[in-house]
Amino acid sequence: MLHRPGEPLALEDVAEPAAAAGHMLLRVRACAVCRTDLHIVDGELEHPKLPLIPGHQVVGETEDGRRVGVPWLGWTDGTCRFCVSGRENLCDRARFTGYDVDGGYAEWCVADERYVFDLPDGVGDADVAPLLCAGLIGYRALRLAGDGERLGLYGFGSSAHIVAQVARWQGRRVFAFTRQGDEDAQSFALSLGAEWAGSDAPPEELDAAIIFAPVGALIPRALAAVAKGGVVVCAGIHMSDIPSFAYELLWGERVLRSVANLTRRDREELLALAPQVPVRTHVETFPLEQGNKALAKLRAGGAMGSLVLVP
Ligand SMILES: [Zn+2]
Ligand SMILES: [Zn+2]
Fold first, then answer.
1. Looking at residues 288-309, what average pLDDT do you find?
2. In angstroms, rounded to a whole number, what is the distance separating the alpha carbons of residues 137 and 36?
3. Which of 24, 102, 111, 305 has the largest count of CB atoms under 10 Å?
4. Tell me: the pLDDT tens digits for 148-196?
5. Ligand 2 is a single-atom ion; what residues have CB below 5 A from it?
6. Cα(80) to centroid of ligand 1, in Å?
């Protein structure tokens, strides 16, 4: 439970939540940790419900025994100009799991049944949980990055380790950017099919780049790395300020854009595609009580793949 941003989560006994009409009560089987959770806990996203149970990559079990997923997008109005044009991810009144409503760092979770979806069999709870945001946001970012063959991934964490597998399967070439000297992350990227991993300029021009690291200074660097017509996608919900840069970096029809949230269509596409690749997530599990430890590991940059809390 988060009471005040900037403070550690508190372990508390709370009453089993009641499911209102149109909602489901779920027993949480696993909840993956997302960098967004860290931004919320650290106070970089400014308006969380308080007190708050974070967590929006929830694998839950319904009262009748179905295994379902609860993602970040927890509710939309269905009526605003974004919703009616197929862009519910941009809904003016969207509510988000683990931010506006309580999420999955808990034993029980309540979710709007319209946004809950069945999960495929054959993948463990902890292994499938990171697909629910890291995988989905990464997939949406990859789609918006276009069809370019040479793809740069800046920040090789939970999302990138999934996207790299999908991109390789699509026949793309992957170039992984890590923090200076982070040899563990670089060898992890190479083991997942990246043909180059480093922290400086790539060995050749890229066609597209996705920035997962919350570091605005990477934007001019990524623009400098992509060829004419290249696309740079910022996949995080929060980023430090972008330093000013020469127009020349954007010239040549380079495109810079962000990705916000996700739609139910993204989820249908990724869940259909993941078993074909097949996507294999690398996860480290923590007991629910050790949520602060998992967040600290993510904050320190020590995670290889995804971190998952298991009640
Ligand atoms: Zn809307
Ligand atoms: Zn997330």
1. 96
2. 11
3. 111
4. 999 999 999 999 999 999 999 999 999 999 999 999 999 999 999 999 9
5. 34, 36, 133
6. 4
Indicate whether 232 and 245 sit together in one domain: yes
217, 248: one domain: yes
Amino acid code (one letter) for 181: G
Tell me the pTM: 0.95
Element (H, E) at 58: strand 58-61
Report yes or no on 228 lying in a domain. yes
Are the CB atoms for 41 and 80 separated by under 8 Å?
Answer: no
111 and 152 belong to one structural domain: no
Shared domain for 157 and 228, answered yes or no, is yes
pLDDT in tens, 114-141: 999 999 888 999 999 999 999 999 999 9
Ligand nearest to the CA of 103: 2
**Domain edge (last residue) among 221, 240, 258:** 258
Say how many Å lie between the CA of residue 112 and the centre of ligand 1.
15
36 neighbors 45 (Cβ within 8 angstroms)? yes
How many structural domains compose the chain?
A: 2
Confidence grade of residue 63 (pLDDT, cut at 50, 70, 90): very high
Query: % helix / strand / coil in the chain, to the nearest 5?
Result: 30, 25, 50
Distance 134 CA to ligand 1 centre (A): 23
Question: What is the Å distance from ligand 1's center to 175 Cα?
Answer: 36
